[in-house]
């Protein structure tokens, strides 16, 4: 007699479904730069922002995108190293800023060649990071992007915001007097 194993529909083993996400391309939207009015830099004005609509779109394969990011980061690193070299040369020429040097004052980034920096022995992934930009550089970026008039009032508004952030909370101890509480007067719950 042949034994037949009957499989139960109640004890059927559930098939494990593997849920994977696969990416095959990267879509990058490019926006023109404009004055931002939405951030508060640690100093100065001329915040950076972007226009409300993109002006171009580009599709990359994952490999192309990785190569493009590497190229961009390497270019940013090159500029950063050139700026460091320029500042180092100026400091050397002025004996750490103690001596006036006409030659140091005339040096520009154009005077620093790629041969003066060691980009080959610098690992881009380890070195690349975002840094705050000084006001002068932000203004230059805005002008290069076609911003004709930079709102100078923003600088004063940002200074007021930074000053207000230095003062936090109120002096209330046991009870809050809404008439004198700085939190209440500012329209927020007593701290």
From TrEMBL:
It holds the Pfam family CSRNP_N. The keyword Transmembrane helix does not apply. Residues 17-191 form the Cysteine/serine-rich nuclear protein N-terminal domain. One of its GO terms (biological process) is apoptotic process. Keywords: Activator, Apoptosis, DNA-binding, Nucleus, Transcription, Transcription regulation. It is found in: Nucleus. GO terms for molecular function: DNA-binding transcription factor activity, RNA polymerase II-specific; sequence-specific DNA binding. The keyword Disulfide bond does not apply. GO terms for cellular component: nucleus. Belongs to the AXUD1 family. PANTHER family: CYSTEINE_SERINE-RICH NUCLEAR PROTEIN 3 (PTHR13580:SF13), TGF-BETA INDUCED APOPTOSIS PROTEIN (PTHR13580). This is CSRN3 protein. It comes from Lophotis ruficrista. The lineage of its organism: Eukaryota, Metazoa, Chordata, Craniata, Vertebrata. The gene is Csrnp3.
